[in-house]
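[job 0412] stage=complex_fold ligand=NAP status=START
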Amino acid sequence: MTEPFRVALAGLGTVGTSVFRLIETHAELYAARIGRPLEVVAVSARDRDKQRGIDCTRCVWFDDPVAMAAEAEADCVVELIGGEEGAALELTQVALEQGRHVVTANKALLAHHGSALAKQAETANRALRFEAAVAGGIPIINALQDGLTANRIERVYGILNGTANYILTEMERTGRAFEDVLKEAQELGYAEADPSFDIGGIDAGHKLSLLAALAFGMRVRFDALPMTGITAIEADDIAYARDLGYRIKLLGIAQHTEEGIAQRVEPCLVGAAHPLSPVDGVFNAVVIDADAVDRLTFVGRGAGGEPTASAVLADLIDVARGQVRPAFITPAEKLSDLPLAAVDALPGPFYLRLKVVDRPGVIAAIADRLARETISIESMMQRARAEGDVVPVVIVTHETTRAAMERALADIATLDVVSGAPCLLSIENF
Ligand code: NAP
Ligand code: HSE
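[job 0412] stage=complex_fold status=DONE, emitting structure tokens
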């Protein structure tokens, strides 16, 4: 009988149990595709007695996942614990030291230590694979590694966090409160252990930093990636954007500019005709603009046990077939330190929503403060009075920069007519 490809599974939560189940359910299919059986020989989680709906009694149990990475008789360790430091980092380093391949879904770990771990894996001639770390079930890493490797990539961008997209979609669809929808996303297993990573744009930033490294052959630069989340978005902003012909999406965008690579995560207005506009709920989408292939859009489930397990298994099957290649396409030694462009100097139009006291001269004063920064107004709408004599005013500008908008806003804040925090969003006409 052919020797099995032996797997040690660290983490038996939402993703880990789905990976275990998929290996059991599709045992014959995988054996046929790999040419030998895929077998989970060891597992590790915190609580041995927890009911998980899987039978792992024939696997060796380890309370300590780092000890498992060192001692289990496994060809590959699958890391599904999470977190940028601690057990996840240690077990990955130990597994590679012991000559085992590593497959992980952990974008936080790779955003912080990806370049160093890639180097360690290459030195050991072992695979470090992370398809599941970006956009759940969408095979975007493989697309960049294989199908698009002949292209110079100009821009990679998209909806990279399922929880945030789910919240924005449900707020728009049902008018439910932010906190209520977030709780539901957590119950469905979409959210990170710390949900502030989802709503604060950090999880999308982790993923974007990996996409940028792959697309542009640069070191992972999560340390230099500005991120804004969705907590300042009000249901009214979603409605105003819709009235203007846009939808609000939390986007990660990395692109070549004359000054270098510009990378950022922020909520943006996207035109109704753009392929990202109808991407709703927990779905993710990644758009690649490249020289030879032009534009490609990938859409699929960005979170949840099974879609993520699909990506983990794609890596496992590939590694079991003997595929070992640099983690970030370009060998780790050759990943460059490309200059990074200042994102507040990127040109583009903006959406600005203010709440102001409804009295003569207010609009003129605001327009004057914008004009001082040579910001030209494309359109302006004032809504009916919401509370007391305060009204929302929505302004769409012509092309300017975030830096100019922020200077104008600082000036506008000195007027005694503005109430509450403004909402400033870039309008992306890709
Ligand atoms: P999860 O449900 O919280 O599961 C984490 C697992 O790790 C649990 O089984 C837990 O054990 C175990 N664990 C935690 N600390 C441990 C330690 N010190 N030693 C041993 N085991 C430990 O997390 P998840 O949602 O499956 O996510 C796992 C990874 O996949 C994360 O990196 C996440 O970012 C990534 N990811 C998740 C999704 C998703 O939709 N959920 C999608 C893409 C990527 P107990 O069960 O005993 O507590
Ligand atoms: N918390 C993440 C999300 C899981 O909501 O997209 C998938 O990476």
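The mean pLDDT is 95.
[job 0412] exit 0
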